[in-house]
């Protein structure tokens, strides 16, 4: 547990740095699609919920897990779908990009 | 034993790939040219991660997983097809769903592991469920306000901050007790229930115009709670995705609160609603100049440079397609038309850009506040449609104004200012806008959609 915890904290710190550096560069033009995309990516929590359902350790945990999988999956599907719909609409006035 | 270890390693490699794809996904979002590739990367990463998870050796029953995935996808599709004006409430709703997932998993993990929960794990698990549950109800409240099923006005009462902070303090105290005594099962429901109430009370005093900040903040909370879940489950993938989402939400909240010249604490604890009463009362009989669509069309067609300043009012009136017609008509006459977008225009970060892109206005015509503000003195006509406070010059000049210091679009520096507005009622903050009384300002009274339509018709008639 001890070394795992430290590893996990390192990973968190590095990922947060990457997040700050990458997202700082994103133009305000795309902030709405950005938020729906990160929302969809956040639905990766579904992996924890899937294991919870699949391990079937108690009826209670399975029931909570099923609702959790439903919530996360709807976020992933809906999030990617709407992000793509939004991005499709962004067109430039120059037909061919220089 | 070998196969266990083998499949476990394959799963870890798949998770590694998924993490890399998630980072690329965000990186490609930096430009509209590559952004759709970013969505693809995210989708592939997600599918890989889910497929990899299904290989997990501990899974004994696939039936419920399959049912839940199908039901979830069934709910997700309509949520992905909402109208662009409804994107803010959809986003708030998906923050709520994400937080719900995290809270439920955290709850199940607690009851499976109690009473043998190591202290650190109990601490992150508490963080997970506290953040998750307050984000769940807070986001539902935000979605309700945005969808206008709940009153949008900020609701304030005496001692509000005291009540809210006490609730938060109690849930943190419960968490601390559970860290020391993880067998105290009976306290766990309270540790979830109190933040659920706190989430509601936190958003009650927040008005419509503060929604961009609140949505971003809730986004950040949702990400952090997912990262905490990653610590509990020892899942690096989840920690990475949560950290990315959390930092994204945090950056957006900082940008939003800067754009409103307010601190986080001020947004959360200082309901904007109260300050205005005094400012709105000194109603002197000041005179305004108004103009008809015909006059507006004549001025616009004689201009070289026009800057349109759209606000949420434009979206409410569904005027964006008429605005596009105006853009086409003026562009055809050789008038340079650009759009000035204030960071808090709309109900979430970047919302106005999406609405204008939907109306087929090219994105290279949409400029940020910082890009456009220097150009207003050389602008012949600034046309304000449904925006108010973000154009209010008292933010620059009047230190007694409640919005003093807020960065604004300097439309008052343009040679002529035209403001399309239903009437003289003040904006969300109830603050009078001196812009309307300037000599160079023409008020165009009417509904944004029909007024812009009339201007377009006049322009057509003149050619």
Structure overview:
The complex is a heterodimer of chains A (98) and B (463). In chain A, helix 2 runs antiparallel to helix 4. By secondary structure, chain A is mostly helical. The longest helix of chain A is centred in the C-terminal third of the chain and has 31 residues. In chain A, 78% of the residues lie in helices and 0% in strands. Chain A has a domain of 62 residues. The N and C termini of chain A lie far apart (53 Å). With 463 residues, chain B is of the alpha/beta class. Chain B folds into three domains: 76 residues; 185 residues, no CATH class; 179 residues, 3-Layer(aba) Sandwich (Rossmann fold), CATH 3.40.50. In chain B, 59% of the residues lie in helices and 7% in strands. Chain B is built from 18 helices and six strands. Chain B has a six-stranded parallel beta sheet with strand order 3-2-1-4-5-6. In chain B, helix 4 runs parallel beside helix 8, helix 8 runs antiparallel to helix 9 and helix 12 crosses helix 18. Chain B is elongated and about 80 Å long.
Question: What's the quick description here?
Answer:
The complex is a heterodimer of chains A (98) and B (463). Chain A is mostly helical and 98 residues long. Chain A contains four helices and no strands.
| Domains of chain B (count) | 3
Low-confidence stretches of chain A: none
Helix % of chain B is 55-70%
Number of alpha- plus pi-helical segments of chain A: 4
Helical segment count of chain B: 18
Computed CA radius of gyration of chain B, to the nearest angstrom:
26 Å
Largest sheet of chain B: 6 strands, parallel
The portion of residues forming beta strands of chain B comes to: 5-15%
Quick one: which chains have the greatest interface? A-B, 83 and 115 residues
- The arrangement of helices and strands of chain B along the chain is HHHHHHHHHHHHEHHEHEHEHEEH
Radius of gyration of chain A: 19 Å
Task: Indicate the overall shape of chain A.
Answer: flat
Number of distinct beta strands of chain A: 0
Average of per-residue pLDDT values of chain B: 88
- Largest sheet: number of strands, sense, barrel closure of chain A: none
Give the overall silhouette of chain B: elongated
Spans of chain B of at least 5 consecutive residues whose pLDDT stays below 50 are 271-283
Strand order of the largest sheet of chain B: 3-2-1-4-5-6
Query: What is the arithmetic mean of pLDDT of chain A?
Result: 90
| SSE order of chain A, one letter for each helix or strand | HHHH
